[in-house]
Amino acid sequence: MGVLSDHDPVETQEWIDSLRAVLQHQGADRARYLLAMLRQEALLAGAMPPFLATTPYRNTIRPEQEAKSPGNRELEHKIRAAVRWNAVAIILRANKESSELGGHIASFQSSALLYDIGFGHFWHAPSEGHGGDLIYVQGHVSPGIYARAFVEGRLTEQQLLKFRQESEGKGIPSHPHPWLMPGFWQFPTVSMGLGPLTAIYQARFLKYLEGRGLARTDNRKVWAFLGDGECDEPESLGAISLGGREKLDNLIFVINCNLQRLDGPVRGNGKIIQELEGIFRGAGWNVIKVVWGSGWDKLFAKDPAGILLKRMEECVDGQYQDFKSKNGAYVREHFFNSPELKALVADLNDDEVWKLSRGGHDPFKVYAAYAAAVKHQGQPTVILAKTVKGYGMGESGEGQMISHQAKKMTQEALKQFRDRFGIPVPDDRIAEMPFITLAEGSPEQKYLHQSRAALGGYLPQRRQKSTPLPVPPLSSFERLLQSSGEREISTTMAFVQMLGTLVRDKAIGKHIVPIVPDESRTFGMEGMFRQLGIYSSVGQLYKPQDADQLMYYREDKAGQVLQEGINEAGAMSSWIAAATSYSVSNLPMIPFYIYYSMFGLQRVGDLAWAAGDMRCRGFLLGGTAGRTTLNGEGLQHEDGHSHILASSIPNCVSYDPTFAYEVVVIILDGIRRMIQQQQDVYYYITLMNENYPHPAMPQGAQDGIVKGLYLLQEGAKGKGPRVQLMGCGTILREVMAAAELLKNDFNVNADLWSATSYNELRRDGMSAERWSLLHPTEPRRKSYLETSLEGRPGPVVAATDYMRNFAEQVRGQIPRRYLVLGTDGFGRSDYRVQLRRFFEVNRYYVAVAALKALADDGEIKAEAVAQAIKKYGLDTERPDPWTV
């Protein structure tokens, strides 16, 4: 809406004078209320007020409203200077001989103050009276966090010297990695966008725990640090509407707006701070802009006409970056570019003009912003702090395009850096780059440790163990261990029945966290809506349409189910929050997140990898799994590779069960390992929606189910050709049918194996192979798979509903002929029977593959194979299914 012309300036001035009088005598809150009421009245009358997404390009908090820091500024500056220097020294010393190791200097130098104020005044460590604040550190600033921990005495000089040199187990990692520093880092954040996304759901999960009465979390804050360039990642801003909608006032984003990403300006032709302000305000966030340092306050006070603000608003970020790469004289000439503007700084010399800082480098402004953020209620807060990339690096990177890649600094730049921050390093030791410590008993050292003691201890820190929980006995699920008789169920139904038993368990029931996208009814979980309730921070403000039905849609402040909508990344982030609760809140939770398997690891693979790094503990359930199981859905729904993706995550334990009893045994083993023994693994289990009768668990099968293979059915005894048939998921039933074909049509006996986890068999095989490699004088160690097949003659044929690579992983452990069938290629829509014929994994292809293997071994004649191909009507001239 354009600005309307003023046809009555006198009346306009009266309104303005009235507003000023309210501000002067009754304060900003009263003025804000009156403006809100006027706006509401205008809306009701149909006079649409102008929409303003942003506020003026200056600090949100006025100088007279700023909370004052109780700290000792001089001591804090000295501590911060030591940390700054050590952060530089870590990188320069690591790259002294070669730049091969890399590292980042500029990011931390731009945000050093932002972290220092938090560490010094706001961030609580876990203590008896406080669960601890959660800090999502921006990935590239890790040298600064290490530098502070060194000054605190938590890291040694030897560790700093081994930055990015971890193979021997003595170094420290490049970025925040809980897997590599399990007692230090909490959250991996360097895969940009994942920190802000998971921080939002972590804050919501703390509210969930409070709502369910499981933990007190109301005094805890989640702080997420990110860069303005990082906000281009869809994940960074993709869930901010959740923060506003859920009123997550325990969540604070601090965006380091140094205006520069890796190659150049973030918004060279615009203003990233203004853009982000509009986005966050529109999403319901409280926005605090920290644009200008204290030195600018006097200039604003001398400028009632607003020419300075007008100049600030007309400059774009590309210009601001240019100004800060030069000097005071350049700023005077090109920013203060009019007689009126030059008059504002006429009493300042060029050095004083240059020292007019950005807000993110002013301790008073940053403290005031943090103090306002922690007090704010009813909304999450984002602090937009304007800084300079490479602040203090001078000619070696301050405000320059090359800042992010800078790994070295010239001697002259180092001297200027030292002088600028008052660092006690003499000229003759500059080249040596010594690490700075605080003298024992010095005021700085005492102040540092007292500040952290007042906040409960040191950060970052990570809890590695929590209270173990008992595992329900296998007998609790007796019904699922027995044959289903003529009743046909799916493994998904078996899982849901087991989950229903788990949530009723007196010992662990309240620790179960069912997580679903908008597919509960697909997985048969709608019964949990009424039984457990869907978590909602406001409860249920409406009568659901299906209120008269048995399984109606029920939202509740104490609801146990997390229903995340059509949002796999959000649901995965909720799962991560629950799966790390043992560490974050000293409260072990057992999350079960079920989803279409094709929309899991493939879509949120980056989060799944981060979950491994984060040492998550919980269950991922890939429903409707397999390339031929989800009939009718087609190419983008049918999963033939999720287990291959799962195999790439070192601590992801994955299974493809066929029968209900396998599901029960696997889940109980997972609870035992993760929740009772507290092993840092998580489970991926695929489930199918195909219904069929389920047999009872064979005696002695439990151990093999967990290891990844067990003998399901032994073929008839006697002489004659014999094969070993392996299957998993629903294709195991095709393998079972193939065994009958072989016996009835060709008098071939087959031993049937259920291969519940080729991935676990692969890892066991690698372990045995490595042991044998390193112990050449010892007898070769055999894998579990190889030992299982000993004494059972014949070639081995494996068929799965996944790409052939899945079962090919174990070829090296099978010292005999081994044929693999799989579903390589794009999925498609059709009946299951047609899909299995198309991908050549049905019973007929399994039987022909077995016969071909026997023929190649000389056990039968090749004519028998040709006879089977003709008998079963296989098309020998059709194109390869993976090329069609």
Descriptive notes:
- This protein has 884 residues and is α/β, with parallel strands linked by helices.
- Helices cover 40% and strands 9% of the residues.
- The chain contains 35 helices and 18 strands.
- The strands form four sheets. A six-stranded parallel β-sheet has the order 9-6-10-11-13-12, sandwiched between helices. A five-stranded parallel β-sheet has the order 1-2-3-5-4, sandwiched between helices. The chain has a five-stranded mixed β-sheet with strand order 14-16-15-17-18.
- Helix 21 packs across helix 27.
- It is elongated and about 105 Å long.
- The two termini are 55 Å apart.
- The mean pLDDT is 95.
Helix content: 40-55%
Distance between the termini: 55 Å
Average pLDDT rating: 95
Enumerate how many helices there are, as a single number: 35
Number of E-state strands: 18
Q: Gyration radius, to the nearest Å?
A: 32 Å
Largest sheet composition: 6 strands, parallel
By secondary-structure content and strand pairing, the structural class works out as: alpha/beta
**Which stretches are low in confidence, meaning pLDDT under 50 for 5 or more residues running?**
none
Form type: elongated
Trace the largest sheet across and list its strands. Answer: 9-6-10-11-13-12
Q: What proportion of the residues form beta strands (DSSP E)?
A: 5-15%
